[in-house]
Specification:
This protein is an all-alpha fold. The chain has 20 helices and no strands. The radius of gyration is 21 Å and the shape is globular. 54% of the residues are buried.
């Protein structure tokens, strides 16, 4: 069954899901202060926007739904309909005029992101050649980096005027759009928030392109083979889904994956949503400067991810994983020791965090999660994992808001979480490199699938 050819083409189409996932998170983060001023939001409101967004709970809810649907009705089913939901969410955000409307828009977008993630990682893995699974997963991660880079670039070009008179070079376009929509009455926060509206509108356009491309994809041959096998056994709709919790191999696998991904994602999701806000409050940067700083970080992430894609299928994955997470631990040690209220600390922290994000735990998680479970519930297993990870990250996001004033304490917690991820992933790295998905399944499960 490992006949696959042209996996790069399908990988690129599916990877737009990652672009839209990260794009939605960063678009929310980069425009957070603008919506805060426009709607007079408090930290409480910001916490809830993070908690139900594509960053955390919204995606968690979507993932468990999407994982089941992808295993029951096929990977192509997700690509036929999911982008329509995403477009609805970002359009609602673009048109928001009050907090409930904004909150619902974030929720719908987050659910769509979650629905797409298990199917995407599963489809990429199932359509890849043996020696290219890691590469293709890494390419999808590059899209996860390109999304924020483009969104942040838009934020910089469209940035509203600051107190000292600085603004993005294309803010005149924002003003023209705002005055056209409002009849020339847009001023202050009402005018400035149009920067974020236009950024979210760009995600709508990309989602439309993604929908047109993804709905043409062929169904996964791995899924069709698994369905044919299950048909012979005449199992019920929820039989394979329920067996996830009856098999000891599955339980050990989920504990391992939760150990590396939950701990890392609690840190990463916080940075994805609050990084610009942190740079503005702790680093004393303007909105435009914080976006510019983070833009440089994403350029580094993309370059490092490209290098990662070239070597992940060829080198010892244990030590590559260890190297990446160790840099994340060191980054938060810089926050604790030097701080980020000066340019030196900001530059060092940003550089270290960028390199670790290029050698990302999420890349390893996406690779291993799509390898370690049988095809019949591969997406459902990832959906459950993603639900737990993003759901608990949502709870952590609410806690982070309450302790953010004591940023040193928050930094110690972040570093501790990364140390846990480092130890678990380094000690129990699975030996799957160079093996087919069928071979991995046979070695781990035998005939008990």
């Amino acid at each position: 069954m490992e006949k696959k050819k042209g996996s790069l083409k399908s990988t690129l189409a599916v990877s737009l899901t990652n672009y839209l996932d990260a794009g939605a998170i960063v678009a929310a983060g980069s425009g957070l202060s603008l919506w805060q001023d426009y709607l007079n939001l408090e930290e409480f409101h910001l916490g809830w926007l993070n908690a139900i967004s594509a960053n955390t709970m919204g995606a968690a809810m979507g993932a468990i739904i999407g994982g089941f649907l992808a295993d029951k009705y096929g990977r192509k089913f997700i690509y036929t309909y999911n982008m329509l939901i995403y477009m609805t969410g970002v359009l609602l955000i673009t048109l928001s005029v009050n907090f409930p409307m904004l909150l619902v828009g974030f929720l719908i977008t987050g659910i769509s992101v979650g629905v797409g993630v298990p199917a995407s990682w599963t489809y990429i893995s199932e359509s890849s050649e043996i020696g290219n699974r890691g590469r293709n997963i890494a390419i999808s991660q590059m899209a996860w980096g390109i999304g924020p880079m483009i969104i942040l670039l838009l934020g910089i070009l469209l940035a509203p005027q600051t107190a000292n008179g600085e603004s993005g070079i294309c803010f005149g376009f924002v003003a023209s759009v705002a005055n056209f929509v409002t009849g020339g009455t847009a001023t202050g926060a009402v005018l400035h928030v149009f920067t974020s509206r236009i950024v979210f509108a760009s995600l709508f356009v990309v989602a439309l392109i993604a929908w047109l491309l993804q709905r043409r994809l062929d169904e996964s041959t791995e899924w069709k083979a698994a369905q044919a096998q299950q048909g012979k056994k005449k199992q019920g709709t929820f039989a394979s889904f329920g067996s996830l919790f009856k098999n000891k191999v599955n339980i050990r696998t989920m504990l391992f994956l939760a150990g590396i991904y939950l701990t890392w994602n609690m840190v990463s999701s916080t940075m994805g949503f609050f990084q610009q806000h942190i740079y503005e409050t702790e680093g004393h940067l303007s909105n435009m400067m914080s976006n510019l700083f983070t833009e440089g970080q994403w350029v580094v992430i993309i370059l490092v991810t490209f290098v990662f894609s070239r070597i992940v299928d060829k080198v010892n994955q244990r030590w590559l994983y260890c190297f990446g997470v160790s840099l994340g631990v060191l980054a938060w040690l810089i926050v604790i020791s030097i701080g980020i209220n000066g340019m030196q600390g900001l530059v060092i922290f940003t550089a270290l965090w960028a390199v670790q994000a290029g050698v990302s735990v999420q890349s390893f998680y996406a690779l291993w999660a799509s390898e370690l479970f049988p095809a019949k519930y591969r997406a459902a297993a990832q959906g459950i994992m993603f639900f737990l990870v993003r759901g608990l990250s949502a709870a952590w996001g609410l806690i982070f808001v309450s302790i953010r004033s004591n940023f040193t304490l928050a930094a110690f917690i972040m570093m501790g979480l990364l140390i846990i991820s480092l130890v678990i992933g380094t000690v129990w790295t699975p030996k799957t490199r160079g093996k087919s998905l069928e071979q991995i399944t046979k070695e781990r499960y035998g005939d008990d699938i």
